Amino acid sequence: MSIETICIAKPSPVVLKIYPAYRSFFPGFYKALAVFHPVKVLNLPDIWVRDFLPEQNSQTGELFQLGFSPRYANYTPKFTAEISDSVRRLFPVQKCSVQIDGGNIIRGPDGTVFCFENRRIFRKSVAGEQAQKESVLKHALGARKIVWLEREQGDKICHIDGFMQFIGNTLFVSDERFDPYLKGLLLQRLGQVFQVLPHIEVRFLPCLPDESDKSGLSSWGVYVNFLETSRAVFVPQYNLPQDKEVLAIIRTATDKPVVGIDCAEVSCYGGAVHCLTKEYAGEL
After folding, report:
1. Element (H, E) at 234
2. DSSP letter string, 99-143
3. What is the pTM of this model?
4. What does the angle CA 263 – CA 202 – CA 50 come to, to the nearest 5 degrees?
5. Which pLDDT belongs to residue 164?
6. Residue 228: CATH number of its domain
7. At residue 216, does pLDDT exceed 90?
8. Cα–chain center distance at 250
9. Pairing mode, if any, of strands 106-107 and 112-116?
10. How many domains, in total, are found in the chain?
């Protein structure tokens, strides 16, 4: 496998006006990634590149721009258009009509793609719409199968990368078993995963959300938002006692270096390592 290029956002004046903590975060983040990979710093209006940069077809290497039009945080129609325009200037892309953020796409070890169901992607009341959207998305991603997991009530963002990630045949899941509703939803989601991947091992990672966050957007304390590449695993850290425990748990599933990334300041904006990066096979 060729080494990936990792894309991240440049700490430009436009970006720092919205995310001032990104200024101090960026140098250490860039340095940690660059030890293992070529890093491409892109001049973009936003830092959450996972959501809007093109998806790469795992079979052909082609790039597809998915429909990106979120309704949370600072994403006004004008701002969303600026993001989409900047992507088209930077990448030779094909257009994919499916309306889904990149943070709502997790690729499994067998080519299966997992996403949270969302009525903005397809409406269950419209006959055949789900199958049609699945077909288009499978073509863009090079996926074997699309599995839709139930969305949590009140989820403003609907991004699956805050709930689960794979390293090989190990599935890491945010531990939400303390809440009766979330426990039931967790068991339902895991049942769906096991139907497709019956032999995976499940490991739970602490999930310690910021109780003072009234917006519902903060990702502080969400450890599952890590990035695995061909050379390393980059794991968010929050200056919490659980930081070292999480690194130790992840090391049980891989022989790759496991690198902690201090995300305490930037996570309050709505994401961590996985959200801040987008990896592409080969050099761009």
Report:
1. strand 233-237
2. E--GGG-EE-TTSEEEEE--TTT--TTSTTHHHHHHHHHHHHHT-
3. 0.95
4. 40
5. 96
6. 3.75.10.10
7. no
8. 17
9. antiparallel
10. 1
